[in-house]
TrEMBL record:
Species: Didymosphaeria variabile
Family assignment from sequence similarity: Belongs to the cytochrome P450 family.
InterPro entries tied to this protein: Cyt_P450, Cyt_P450_CS, Cyt_P450_E_grp-I, Cyt_P450_sf, Cytochrome_P450_monoxygenase
Protein name in the entry: Cytochrome P450
Membrane-crossing residue ranges in chain numbering: 6-26
Domain of life: Eukaryota
Keyword terms, alphabetized: Heme, Iron, Membrane, Metal-binding, Monooxygenase, Oxidoreductase, Transmembrane, Transmembrane helix
Amino acid sequence: MAPISLQSVLYAIAASIAYVFLKIIYRLFFHPLRKFPGPKLAAATHLYSAYYDLCTPGLIKRLPEMHKQYGPLIRIQPNELHVADLGGYNQIFRVGTPFKRTWLDMEFLNGSLQSKETLPETRARREFLSPFFSKAAILRSEPFLHRQKMTKFLTTLDKASGTVVDFFLAFRCLTADLIMDYCFQQDINALDEPGFRSETIEKFGEGPDMALVGTHFPNFFSFVNKLVSLLPVKMQEEKFRAIHGFRTMQNVARKRIEYLMNNPEKTNSKIPTMFDLMLNPNTEKGQVTPPKAEMVADGTLMIVAGTDTTANTLGTILFHVTQSPSISSRLLSELKTAIPDRNSVVDSATLDGSAFTYTRAIVKEGLRLSYGVPGRIIRRTPPEGATFNGYFVPSGTSVTSGIYLQNTDPATFPSPFTFDPERWLCDAETYKQRDRQMQSFSRGSRGCIGINLAYVTLHLTVAHLFRRFDVQTEGFTTEADMEWHDCFVTTPAGHIKGLVKRRDD
Ligand code: HEM
């Protein structure tokens, strides 16, 4: 083969530069989205939003300012618009929406519910899962699940009284054990690890760091993933710690599925797992058992989707409550009246009663300020296109609208960044309006399937943690530790830690 000449290399470089230049000219002056306002650099290249997402706390935090400057519908990528108002959000995410999800190749989640792009595929999978996540199903399992895990969590804290506890890890151990036990009737006993230092949880926690790299550079991300998968397993797990976390979770799910497949008589237990339901499809309804790899991916998805989100909300609540003497004393006074015996464990139905109104308001405000999945949840316009704010948006355009923006809308939530549970103690009509604006669990056909499980976990943890313990975060956790960046879920800069003291009364 003849050697490549310097001249050919120079031609290739010149051709690449010309290609990029022409592409930018096209995007700025001929692209169907050319008339939409926004920074010119964002319209010219994906690198604009990639820079803000990967090198700053996230593009999402710049969006309020950008909307103020350019209006309610702005171009934030060559082929992506961002919608600011609630009407636009509801249009994209409503029940039966024709907007398709955009899925990026992610090894551990391919085939899961979240990877389904179209509504019929989503419905088929959710039909299996929705009854499993219903409020009634979660309440049925509470004596075997939440009561036991909560008791373990509180006992460990009792033993830690007088010491500083890393609640970032403690909440993740609690939520991971709960979700795995609920979904698979097996967990990793993370709550048993001294100091809540579960190796799997710590490694798993590094997963979100890579999430936005995948969003901005999907081909590169997928290429690197494939290369990594060729390395010896030990090296993969040492050098890419999140992979070890994911594999451990996958193995727990796979083991359960294989056990049930080999012991079909066990799949009719009174408290079924999500896999029992999938392995016993209702053929009259046209249900079909998903392939094993997809069931494993769904198992992994539940842990990915439910662990950090719920733990982040608990961290947000712990920080704000412990930093405000007026909020913490009002909460404690409610809890002491409603749970006179410090050591008793009440059930979640009791927490729905009027004796716990302030506790629930705290959870609601914690959900608002922890933002769920704060950033751009990407959807594509349907073949017929769509109209936002009177402007036609052509078919196949990516449109996004972030939860962060909705949850901090100052018109609905005055002083939006202040943790103020009182805002939820309002008349029914105002509550409804604020609730409609808050999107922590998103909405519609792709809204959070784990919402009931999340609420039960949040109510029980907040009520019992604050009833039994005095936690002092001041001096151990700073505002800077709580500053988050967007990694698909919110990821705080530091760990929330606090000195735990057992209450005597
Ligand atoms: C405070 C806790 C939680 C918050 C704030 C939250 C928030 C969200 C949000 C915003 C979405 C929509 C994401 C999107 O459209 O891409 C979502 C989806 C989802 N959530 Fe949650 N979540 C929480 C807890 C849970 C729990 C406990 C589980 C299950 C164990 C769970 C399972 C899921 C699943 C499977 C989806 C994907 C649904 C689909 O694609 O159709 N979540 N969650």
